[in-house]
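go over whats below:
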Amino acid sequence: MDKIYIIGAGGEGQVVADLLMSNGLTPSGFFDDNETLHGKEFLGVPVIGVVEKAKEFKGKFLIGIGDNKVRKKIFEFLGFPLDNYLTQVNKLTYIGSGSSIGFGSIVLGGVVISTQAKIGNFVILSIGAMISHHDIIEDFAFIGPNSALGGNVHVGEGAFIGLGASVIPGIRIGKWSIIGAGSVIIEDVPDYATVVGNPGKVIKIRGECVK
């Protein structure tokens, strides 16, 4: 069995370590650019060195970082082929027939993935998220705890859906958009938009306030 390494030793990285252990796998180490963590252990797993040092190691990797943009930057920086990355799914997950999950994705406990959903690469599905039939979640997206997507929802690359948000069926969530916690989305969301409230309202696009 190849050794397994986690990029990122912070909160999300430790969640990934715990997920691996719950699946009967033992990570060999973390890599993190925060040098104050070097030499420390979390869940019995040592922090080996900076992220760049991972290039010197052979094995399988997971990127345990919640920030979608940073997760993508690290993937591009390391330059590893996709099949160098593990996909990990908690045992307390339901996956419907015909659904797929890409490389490097992390699925935590209590997640429901209905039939014929497509989960991309380096996606994080957090605790209790509900993914309905025929949903498409593109690469580097994050679906927060207890959020719910209706059927035929399309979530763009790098989109962030906050804790407890709900999206009605057939909606398209634009790439690199942010859906605030508890928001209810009843209309398509533009790329790079920030949406909050019930019903959801666009308050920013690319950092510029919407009046």
About this structure: The chain has two domains: 4-84, 88-203.
